Structures
1.
Amino acid sequence: MSAEAALKIAYDANLDLAKIAPTANPPVCKVLDYGKYVYEQAKKEKEARKNQHVVDVKEIRLSVNIDTNDFNTKVKAAQKFLKGGDKVKVSVRFRGREMAHMEYGREMLANFAEACEEFGIVEKSAKQEGRNLFLFMAAKPAK
């Protein structure tokens, strides 16, 4: 139908003529209350934003000479973060002469990843940046 005829129908019904799909050929229009339409669209977007989960990156710092109980405490914290759906950045900081023994840090990160494998997967394997060694873990996808 022509645009004039559609406008007349909308005017007679005391409503608005809104383009729903302006890129279609021919464009698709709808007779509706435009204020109500905009309000409902905003309401849908707000509801969608409310249901979204923002993934945070939590950091856990270790040192090369950490004791077993301290290590287990850090593992439990990481497991809690992964259960919550967050990503975990595990970093090992080397000081002084510890730089000569990077293999201990890599071994520790491997043990850490193995301890957390029930709740998360390794996203980025161990990578060295300066005096730090990093490992990124992400929560396992829900089945």
2.
Amino acid sequence: MKNLVIIIYFLCSGLLSAQEQITFIHEAQDHAKQNNLKILMVFSGSDWCKPCIQFKKDILNSERFKEYKQNRILELSLDFPYKKKNALSQEQLKHNERLADQFNPDGTFPRIVLLNSEVEQIGDLKYRKGMSTTEFIEDISVLLDRVQ
């Protein structure tokens, strides 16, 4: 019985890691449809954009936000790194650029867009320096209330 619990734990851990590593919109869309989730699309420059780095650290990586997004939101990070050591594959770069053309034509970083599972924009979210996780969650909740 103990071995079964351990196996189930590792299987579930693997599923959660796979969910967090979704990097293509079609994967996000499929997962969002299957699980009745919204998609939080985040355009960032992970190795050069200070507000992007701060947003990820203060909001996205917070335990409070991770708990909140369960069963509600799938995060899709669209990174545009500067350093060669962080370079994306050509496939990922083209994918991210295509979505940036559609949802971030101004090249704003971080740009945060909430989508439904049909990849239709529900609304934009703003990150402000010093913003708390609670404030960000409240902003998302306002957008979600409009569509439910």
3.
Amino acid sequence: MRPDWIIPDWPAPVRVRALMTTRAGGVSRPPYDGFNLATHVGDDPAAVAENRGLLRAHLPAEPLWLTQVHGTTVAEVGHDAAGVVADAAVARSAGQVCAVLTADCLPVLLCDERGSVVAAAHAGWRGLLAGVLEETVRSMGIGSARILAWLGPAIGPDAFEVGEEVRQAFIEQHPLAATAFRPALPGTLDELPRKWLADLYALARIRLAGAGVERVHGGVGCTYRDADRFYSYRRDGRTGRMAALIWRE
């Protein structure tokens, strides 16, 4: 099966290239079938290496693969070594590739309107709450009004159930975050424990707006619901990872 890659539909400068892989294509066997790019999930290392090689043929250089921990550290491509513990990466030179791996968490790609700097961030709810997007914007080192962002596929607002403590933590930081949650079941507002459906896309837009980034694109699809196209950790547990990548030419 040929790779089925998503090309972001956003008004990025012509010198900026970006793509998001799906699970289609590749050589990984179940439950990682087929285009798993993660080395830490139990897949055959030879299969992961072959999948990465297939991807590498379409890139100007090897991506800076991160060790992601749901934190806020931002790595510098060209400075930090592969495997650095970080949940975002920024690149300033042509041919340097930023990459993050996801399987329900939200991948966010960023660039400035002139294409002088690019970045990728891994933004699950823990990273969003901790401030990974704000830290990524800060690390880009340019005026936030000049930044464009693209939100890749993540678990959708009809599938991502969280507890009351998650909702309250977001609202305490940004009261507008209340609009990104709705009861998981009708008629449960007065019952405890409360369960809520969280909209990662909406939460990311709120956090980016708070950091001064208003031009945000993407934010569609649901990794949990679309098993044919996307990996989902919450749906499957033992599964692969997709990659969101961005670079300058």
